[in-house]
Write a structure and sequence with these properties.
Keywords: Hydrolase
Number of domains: 2
Structural class: alpha+beta
GO molecular function: hydrolase activity
Helix content: 25-40%
Strand content: 15-25%
InterPro entries: Beta-lactam-related, Beta-lactam/transpept-like, Diverse_Enzym_Activities
Order of helices and strands: HEEEEHEEHHHHHEEHEHEEHHEEHEEEEH
Strand order of the largest sheet: 3-2-1-16-15-14-13-12
CATH architecture of the largest domain: 3-Layer(aba) Sandwich
Protein name: Serine hydrolase domain-containing protein
Length: about 400
């Protein structure tokens, strides 16, 4: 397994070398000013790495640097992999996008929708429509996250042990049954809310395939793509490569959080398709290259090109953007001009988004401030890895966009 390295001179791929250096100057200030413990950034065009930089520490207290093979918890960057897994099964006829979730997880039949009242005694009514698989893929299911702290149902999730984790006695099947017992925020398909939809989708993958989620990932995605360092936990022999996890204090500075940092260190009871994977820059770069190439990499095709194009168009009802339909706020990135596909955010209108980008760009990020995007129009992929919770602490993602695109000059 060859180490990551720069594969082309900037000018060969339409970049200005001096302008690319602005990326490092900018984010090195984050490290110097103790806003980030460290980071890795990777920019590739037409399949070749044109910029690769590391800075700071993967473990500040131990003095260990971020290296190109450092393991990072990618949190919600797991979601595109789970969505891909589901659509691979869709291609095999395992389900239709309009099939009810209850066909695979019976506890999701006859759901209730929140009407009013406190979390301990909510008023509810029956949902007017069943939750469908496409609702899970698009986050229009009515499910939520406990850590949002925006709605009485969020409080119900927290009261049930679902804030930044899950009750220790439950596996994925048990978690899904618990979520199904709680009210939805809205009727499926009527709004967009970031939540456990992709975790539930991971359970659909298990039921539809007859495999555990980790086994499906390993045999159908990770091994074919050569993503050998990606999984739900890190082997003990590789533990030193795993970056420590930090949470931001009131001033936005990293404070070590070993309680959260235990995630990824040992095999989990819940195979969380919405947040559970650990990966490296090399592995996720390979995943991005497969996406850029329409579902194939080095002779291994994991999904059809038309399916992938279908996944990366805006599927929100009426073709609206997230600003029009999303409840609450889920990151530091603005929602205007941005739709949502089947597992990815999708740029529809770069002008409305108010950040340098291309129409058709698709992306997502993770809770610990990680981010990636794929821009088919520019044949561009960008990856940023670090370990600071939450992702809204600093405006890393929009700043990274402007710094990457200003360096493209062809």
């Amino acid at each position: 397994m060859s180490p990551l390295h720069v594969e082309a001179e900037p000018a060969e791929l339409g970049f200005d070398a001096a302008r690319l250096k602005r990326i490092d100057r900018h984010f090195t200030r984050y490290v110097d000013e103790e806003k980030l413990p460290g980071y890795l950034v990777l920019v590739a065009r037409r399949g070749k790495i044109v910029h690769l930089a590391t800075q700071g520490r993967r473990d500040v207290e131990a003095g260990l640097p971020v290296e190109t093979d450092t393991l990072f918890r990618i949190y919600s960057m797991t979601k595109p992999i789970t969505s891909l897994a589901a659509m691979m099964l869709y291609e095999e006829g395992a389900f239709e996008l309009t099939d009810p979730v209850s066909a695979f997880i019976p506890s999701f039949a006859d759901q209730q929708v929140y009407l009013g009242g406190p979390a301990r005694k909510p008023e509810t009514r029956p949902a007017t429509a069943p939750m469908l698989i496409w609702h899970l893929l698009t986050h229009t299911s009515g499910l939520t996250y406990g850590f949002h702290n925006l709605h009485p149902v969020d409080q119900m999730y927290r009261d049930g042990g679902f804030e930044w984790g899950s009750p220790p006695a439950l596996d994925l099947e048990g978690c899904c049954d618990e979520w199904a017992s709680m009210p939805l925020l809205f009727d499926p398909g009527q709004a967009w809310n970031y939540g456990v939809s992709t975790d539930v989708l991971g359970r659909v993958v298990e039921v539809a395939s007859g495999q555990s989620l980790d086994e499906f990932f390993r045999t159908r995605i990770l091994e074919p793509l050569g993503m050998h360092d990606t999984g739900f936990s890190v082997p003990e022999s590789e533990a030193e490569r795993l970056a420590a996890l930090y949470t931001a204090d009131a001033a936005g500075r990293p404070v070590r959080n070993d309680r959260f940092g235990r995630v990824g260190s040992t095999p989990p009871r819940v195979l969380a398709g919405g947040q559970g994977l650990v990966s490296t820059a090399r592995d996720y770069h390979r995943f991005q290259q497969m996406l850029l190439r329409g579902g194939e990499l080095d002779g291994a095709r994991v999904i059809g090109s038309r399916t992938l194009r279908y996944m990366t168009r805006n599927h929100l009802p009426g073709g609206v953007d997230l600003e029009s339909i999303a409840l609450g706020s889920f990151s530091e990135v603005a929602n205007a001009g941005k739709g949502f596909g089947l597992g990815f955010a999708v740029i529809d209108d770069p002008a409305a988004a108010k950040v340098l980008s291309s129409a058709g760009e698709f992306s997502w990020g993770g809770a610990a401030s990680t981010a990636f995007w794929v821009d088919p129009a520019e044949e561009l992929t960008v990856l940023f890895l670090t370990q600071l919770l939450p992702s809204s602490t600093h405006p890393i993602r929009p700043q990274l966009h402007q710094l990457v695109y200003q360096a493209l000059v062809d």
